[in-house]
């Protein structure tokens, strides 16, 4: 059975850039949620794996469900456990160039409940309708992994293309054409 999740992301402007911003809440201390987004074994349950030594200022990260894509370099711009992480990802493009994205993770804890606020910059608004649903999917996989559920029960096909209209509207893009192209 296919179910369409309710989109939670929004557009925010930070430092002159547009971001997709999403939140998830966990009944867990910030240190536990921090481990879920930084420890290799915990990350591997819901999104991917990293190799390297973060003390050097970067690691190589490979997402689980992005096909045969090469690992991306994640430059660690700020790391303040267990509340703040900033990274810049760099990956090769099909034309031999590179693209970069800024990711921001902020955790706040109150009364044993931690809220994760995740943000990714979107320099080209035309890709917001794939970035948003993608992060909704991965963050819901995280919720499943961290609450005793099965991350594999979270299906990408429930998120994409169903959530595209929400992100197209949030980023001021025209309605999606009936043929499904990004218009």
TrEMBL record:
It comes from the Bacteria. Pfam families: AHSA1. Residues 27-144 form the Activator of Hsp90 ATPase homologue 1/2-like C-terminal domain. This is Polyketide cyclase. Belongs to the AHA1 family. Signal peptide: none annotated.
């Amino acid at each position: 059975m296919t179910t369409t999740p309710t989109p939670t992301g929004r557009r925010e402007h930070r430092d002159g850039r547009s971001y997709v911003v999403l939140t998830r809440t966990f009944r867990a201390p910030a240190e536990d949620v921090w481990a879920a987004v930084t420890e290799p074994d915990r990350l591997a349950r819901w999104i991917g794996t990293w190799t390297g030594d973060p003390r050097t200022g970067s690691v190589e990260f490979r997402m689980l469900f992005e096909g045969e894509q090469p690992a991306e370099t994640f430059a660690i711009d700020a790391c303040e456990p267990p509340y703040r992480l900033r990274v810049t990802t760099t990956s090769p493009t099909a034309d031999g160039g590179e693209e970069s994205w800024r990711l921001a993770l902020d955790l706040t804890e109150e009364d044993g409940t931690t809220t994760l606020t995740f943000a990714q910059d979107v320099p080209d608004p035309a890709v917001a309708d794939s970035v948003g649903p993608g992060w909704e999917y991965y963050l819901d996989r995280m919720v499943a992994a961290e609450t005793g559920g099965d991350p594999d029960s979270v299906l990408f096909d429930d998120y994409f293309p169903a959530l595209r209209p929400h992100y197209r509207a949030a980023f001021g893009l025209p309605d999606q054409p009936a043929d499904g192209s990004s218009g």
